[in-house]
Amino acid sequence: MEGLLAALEGSGLATWARGARWGYAALSGAHVLGIALLVGAMVPLNLVRLGLGRVPQEPIARVLVPAAGVGLALAAATGAVLFAVRASEYAALAVVQAKLILVALGTASALVLHAAYGWFMERAGARRRAIHAGVSLVLWLMVLALGRLIAFVG
Amino acid sequence: MTMTRRTTLATALATGLGLVLATPALAHHGWAWTTGGNIVLTGIIRSVSLGNPHGVLEVDAEGELWTVEVGQPWRNARAGLVDGDLAEGVEVTIEGEPSADPDERLMKAERITIAGKVYELYPARS
Q1: Cα distance between residue B75 and residue A47, in whole Å
Q2: What integer pLDDT is reported at residue B21 of this predicted model?
Q3: Between A and B, how many CB-CB pairs are < 8 A?
Q4: Per-residue confidence of chain A (154 residues) as pLDDT tens digits?
Q5: For residue A43, which phi and psi values (nearest 5 degrees)?
Q6: Between these two residues, B3 and B89, which has the higher pLDDT value?
Q7: Measured between CB atoms, does B102 come within 8 Å of chain A?
Q8: How far A103 CA sits from the closest chain B CA (Å)?
Q9: The dihedral of CA B71, B76, B81, B87: what is its sign?
């Protein structure tokens, strides 16, 4: 594990990001954009699934599911580089460990659920959709809060 | 299947929350975690880790090892510091705010003096 973290820190990409002024700013900015897309799509989508507004879920899901997916991919890709910049320090932080566990859980459960019930959850019943919407809402907001905490507890 | 997944999730959430609550307060973002007053620390740099998101020095001040947060690359460069200024064995005088928890021996540098030359990391702060 320590060897892996050291290798991440020593990688060319991490070394570049550690010293880059605008590169690091762009990386942080892109990470925030990813989070904004993910959370900004996930919150209304899940609230609709929980019954907010009594609007048809399918067309809303067709827009918001891809937006959340693109946001997650962007946040994960940029987050991996940001992590690599100080891999061993971040890996030792409880907030980072908790965040990574929740990101892995959220991503895995989204992939499993969408594989089982369709990309827009069209094959799931309203009750199942509502339950998973509630879980998703809590989980991703916790990820957001834990991520923000990193800058304050490191 | 659903039950198992839900139980796993609940366990993970509880673990996550427990971990967060158990984390010691060791903040570095902003100034909310510092005392609000400045101290001056003189010592020899024992280790240097520069770069984003912020640099860290370990400074030996008469046998007490302090962790000193310095700037990220652009802030250090703006202050006039060049590669090699902050290096092991260099004597530095650091002025800045210490952590509100004195046992941490942690401070955030506002200005650094090396060989009589002052480098202002936060020119607006005094």
Answers
A1: 43
A2: 45
A3: 72
A4: 889 999 999 999 999 999 998 999 999 999 999 999 999 999 999 999 999 998 999 999 999 999 999 999 999 999 999 999 999 999 999 999 999 999 999 999 999 999 999 999 999 999 999 999 999 999 999 999 999 999 888 6
A5: -65, -55
A6: B89
A7: no
A8: 11
A9: positive
- Check CB contact under 8 Å for B53 and A151: yes
pLDDT of res. B6: 57
What ipTM was estimated for this complex? 0.77
Q: Please state, in angstroms and rounded to a whole number, the distance separating the CA atoms of residues B104 and B106.
A: 5
pLDDT at B61: 95
Does A152 touch chain B if contact means CB atoms closer than 8 Å?
Answer: yes
What does the block give as tokens for A12? 């060319």
Q: Provide the CATH topology of domain B27-120.
A: OB fold (Dihydrolipoamide Acetyltransferase, E2P) (2.40.50)
Beta-sheet pairing, B106-114 with B64-69: parallel
Domain-by-domain residue ranges, chain B? 27-120
Please state, in angstroms and rounded to a whole number, the distance separating the CA atoms of residues B60 and B54: 20
The residue among A32, A65, A61, A66 whose CA lies nearest residue A48 is: A61
Burial label for B24, CB within 10 Å (0-12, 13-18, 19+), is exposed
Other C-beta atoms closer than 10 Å to the C-beta of B73 total 19
Residues 60-99 of B with CB under 8 A from A: 72-74, 77
Among B72, B74, B122, B73, which residue's Cα sits nearest to residue B94?
B122
Residue recorded with tokens 């007490």: B64
Task: For residues B75 and B28, give the distance between their C-alpha atoms in angstroms, rounded to a whole number.
Answer: 15
Q: What's at B31, amino acid-wise?
A: W
Distances A123 to A33, A105, A117 between C-alpha atoms, Å = 31, 22, 5
